């Protein structure tokens, strides 16, 4: 198996302990420009990086990738059937987009519940329960007969959907070789684009091709999770989780140690958690603002046929998959923050052709715009993993992502509602008159603001490129285990800080 050179860590990470540096606010802000300088790690052959993984690591990555793919497939079924749902339930397009908004709002509940379960009991069974719920709620959506039923089922589906992202990221990445993190992060995140691509293709084949109209797409969506349940059942827990579980068991008070880890993580990292939620709000506005209403814009504003919309969406998602993989891979060399900022600037420059081109040339704009959007997203799984407190990696990654989704949950509804304030001449069809709106103008302005927000927040944020994921470099766990086993839960902060410093000295000696 191939070997890799040692990764140069980011400025914000202590090179001796591989833990975050302790800096005051003034020094932290003063170092933001200089810390953005790329570490310029050697750019290895990507094939060599992928050869670093053994069979078990590949299986973990694959089950995480496929779970995230089907999570995206199920989510985008609504985006791709807005018109059909509106006709069935006798509602406007903006009313139907509440089915998207509710999913985004409810996902944070699932991320908290399933995230805590995965960090406490393991990655395996929460993943399986997620898939069982996917089956139930996708089938139920296909049998909805009223608008209220539709909204209720999608809200419950949102809870199930919210529990998967953190688990999928932890399962796929926490055991992977350090040098391969960037490219695997990009590949993992493109499960989202791949799911969108599959949803687009199957929607073309299943929607309005039978007397059941849009319903077969949802019924089909309930099938593949059965295979994923079987796949995950025959895989063990990740090595990183088993190692952490052994330390907790060694204290003789597993639950007490887990609770103590949570208290330590919250006391030390609450500001970082707030930052991660704000960052993910921007990223979710970026993805949903550029994608959810885009098929409607193509068909409604630019009168694209169903086939033309499908081709444009497929090409856009091919660009997304290429961008996520490429930028995730390059972030290992140029750094996480630098990569996000550069590709966001490029994405902003492409907004005009993306949203104001009515000819067939829009396909090229869609490819490169989604290359940039998902290019920035390709860095996110490993960026969040490295920023997260190790003991609560699944909970923090999933909850930060889903709370960001909650903040951005109304993006498609906002765009649809504002777009209706900019009417175009209606389109007359055999079925009647169809109202048309300038959705492209709204998408362009909205996304310009989102890109600016993401660039600013990323510039002023931290980066822990090169952070170790094993328990020997986890100060939170060592502090919590010592408190739990030593009966020092009631000691004051000064004694706790002394133990933290002692633990850091021991880790330096070990390194």
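Sequence proposed for the structure above (511 residues):
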């Amino acid at each position: 198996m191939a070997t890799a050179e040692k990764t140069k860590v980011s400025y914000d990470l202590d090179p001796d302990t591989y833990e975050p540096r302790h800096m005051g606010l003034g020094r932290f802000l003063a170092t933001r420009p200089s810390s953005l300088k790329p570490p310029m790690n050697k750019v290895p052959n990507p094939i060599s990086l992928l050869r670093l993984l053994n069979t078990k690591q590949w299986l973990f990555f694959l089950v995480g990738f496929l779970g995230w793919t089907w999570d995206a497939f199920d989510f985008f079924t609504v985006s791709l059937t807005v018109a059909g749902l509106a006709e069935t339930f006798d509602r406007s397009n903006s009313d139907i987009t509440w089915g998207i908004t509710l999913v985004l709002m409810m996902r944070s509940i699932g991320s908290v519940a399933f995230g805590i379960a995965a960090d406490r009991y393991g990655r395996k069974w929460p993943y399986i329960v997620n898939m069982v719920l996917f089956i139930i709620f996708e089938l139920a959506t296909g049998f909805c007969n009223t608008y209220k039923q539709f909204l209720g089922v999608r809200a419950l589906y949102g809870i199930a959907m919210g529990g998967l992202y953190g688990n999928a990221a932890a399962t796929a990445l926490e055991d992977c070789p350090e040098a391969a993190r960037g490219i695997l992060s990009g590949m993992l995140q493109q499960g989202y684009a791949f799911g969108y691509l599959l949803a687009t293709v199957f929607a073309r084949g299943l929607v309005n091709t039978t007397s059941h109209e849009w319903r077969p797409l949802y019924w089909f969506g309930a099938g593949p999770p059965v295979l994923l349940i079987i796949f995950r059942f025959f895989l063990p827990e990740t090595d990183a989780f088993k190692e952490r579980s052994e330390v907790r068991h060694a204290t003789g008070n597993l639950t007490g140690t887990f609770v103590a880890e949570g208290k330590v993580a919250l006391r030390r990292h609450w500001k970082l958690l707030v930052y991660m939620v704000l960052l993910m709000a921007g990223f979710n506005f970026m993805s949903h603002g550029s994608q959810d209403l885009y098929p409607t814009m193509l068909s409604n504003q630019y009168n694209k046929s169903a086939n033309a919309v499908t081709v444009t969406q497929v090409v856009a998602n091919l660009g997304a998959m290429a961008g996520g993989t490429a930028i995730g891979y390059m972030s290992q060399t140029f750094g996480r923050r630098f990569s996000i900022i550069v590709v966001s600037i490029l994405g902003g420059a492409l907004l005009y052709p993306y949203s104001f081109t009515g000819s067939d040339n829009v396909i090229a704009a869609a490819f490169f715009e989604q290359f940039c959007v998902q290019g920035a997203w390709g860095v996110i799984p490993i960026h969040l993993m490295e920023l997260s407190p190790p003991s609560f990696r699944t909970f923090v990654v999933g909850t930060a992502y889903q709370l960001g989704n909650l903040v951005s949950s109304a993006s498609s509804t906002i765009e649809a509602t504002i777009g209706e304030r900019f009417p175009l001449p209606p389109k007359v069809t055999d079925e009647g008159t169809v109202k048309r709106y300038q959705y492209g103008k709204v998408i362009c302005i909205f996304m310009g603001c989102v890109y600016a927000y993401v660039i600013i927040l990323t510039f002023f944020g931290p980066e822990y490129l090169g952070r170790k994921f094993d328990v020997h470099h986890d100060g939170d766990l060592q502090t919590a285990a010592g408190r739990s086993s030593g009966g020092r839960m009631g000691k004051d902060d000064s004694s706790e800080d002394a133990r933290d410093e002692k633990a850091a000295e021991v880790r330096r000696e070990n390194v």
